[in-house]
Amino acid sequence: MNKATIELVVTQDGLIIKVHKYTPPSGKGSPLTEKQILAQLKQIGIRMDINHDLIHAVVAKAVSGSDITGMAVLKGVAPCMKGAEYFKLKGNPDLPVFKGMVIGSIEKHKEDIPGIDVFNQKVMPGDSQQPTAVKIGSGCVLNQKTNNVLARGYGQVLSHDHSVRVKPLFRISPDKTRITSVLFHSDFYNKKITVERIVESLTAMQLGETIVLKTIEEGLRRAAKNKSPQIAVVAKGRPPLNGRDGYFEPSDAIKPPEIDESDVNIKVDYRERGIFRTVATNTELGKIYPPEEGTDGYDVFGKLQEAKTGKEAKLKPGKNVSMAPSGLLSSTMSGLVVFEKNTISVLDFMTINGDVDYSTGNIRLESGSVEITGSIKEGFVVKAPEHILVHENIEDARVSAGGKVEVNFGVVMKGSGKIQAGGAFRCKFAENAMIQIGEDLNFSSNLNNCRIHCKGAVLAPEKGIIMGGEIKAEKYIEVNQIGSEYGIKTDIYVGPAKKNIEKLANEKAELTKHHQEIKNILMKNAMENKSGKLTAEQKKKTKELMETYAKIQERIKKMDKIIREKGISPEDARKHYVKVKQTAYPGTNIYFQGKSLKLVEAVHGAKFSYDPAKDSIIWG
After folding, report:
1. Among 302, 410, 484, 535, which is least packed, fewest CB within 10 Å?
2. What is the pLDDT of residue 614?
3. Kind plus residue range of the DSSP H or E element containing 336
């Protein structure tokens, strides 16, 4: 825990003292202070008056964590030579100028003017010094005949001995529909500013009818009353109003029912998550509303700004759904309503009233989906090429769907059951379950001691807790809690599986070793060839070795390329993470790209990810 240290240096001409070296504090060490700088200035022997503003700026930048090397802490007065130009101000720079006003003139020094160095010593211009010229910046122009500098518009003068510019006081918004200005009670020459003068400046910008007289009058009135500048909108266009996008409004027949907040279906976007509903033939499913046209606008210059027409609704009618000219959607058969890939479809399904047990036997469908109003009991099999909806629980059963699987309550297994879903999977809770999922997994309560491989994301919108077991998500994981305060071992794998490059790396290492051995032999043979010791047979073998050397070198280059391509890029790494809203407890192990992070203490509200540059798992 070392405090900040600083080392100052005087420039060769003696006019500036600047920071030569700076070491920030470490740990809880004290930051740089003004007192430290003043103490060093005293040691250097400074005799001139100290400008504390410069020192304050240096200290502030150091405290902010920035590098201050090279910053000036004290400046003397530079000398001026005869003939050097300087800018002579002719008014009050705190007040604004208008177009055509003379703001100053370019003058020349009639004789050398000595400066003062930091030791309070007189400094004369050097022999090699050249006369300086004043730089005319934006917002002003030089009259070559009179050497006067004139303003080009309404603004504020910013000047120095060797430069001058006028900063505009009219600010045009990015969409060009508003101009904001700073209004003053009097101008550069202390002459009263009137509404007419502001309007004249705006008219010169070809604004016309968009000028807002009322706010200009009010701004000038407040400026005169308070003797301080006021901000006002001085010109206003009309932003275009873009048309509303088309959208789908579901009917009551397919809206999720009113249920308890702890239920899995609460706050779920049916359009995105594919909530299953069953409907009869000719059931009204909802209505697709067309996009609307917008209202055009105009900018402060009166130029038309066209509004965008709204986009078509993303949702389209799919299988067994008809759409009337009015946009009304209806089912053409009884079946299961499914939202998938921006379509709404009604799919063929079988309904099992009650449980799948000895009364029904195993369920294996050749086509369509299946709805089970009860539970799937232990030891039974349910297979469907499309979707499976279970109103209650899945016990220790084997369930397989080509599409989504939805369980309104939970999954409880003992070791022989397994669930496979080609699409997404949703449940309230799962215990001791083995689940393979082709898309996302959504749950609302607990995943206890489960083995899950998910090609999408694992998401828990409410209080979701993962405790024990092994969870693999190829995209990302967002939950409330991982593990428990009792240190239960919980393995979390996130991101794509690490491609097998270990074998390639080992092969490359062997080739590199062999490559170097051949190189050593070739170098030895080259030396012996120069001395004439190599026989014809040895020369022939040397040629063969050179060919082998070239082939190995080419193979190593190809392997390097393959290894690079099999790695993960920083862009890809950012897409994969584990986000824990509350706590990840000790016993939690996070794996990514072959790297592991074992938590030995609780981590609260963290996001874990892989950093390819560091080749390690980071969090924050």
Report:
1. 535
2. 75
3. strand 335-340
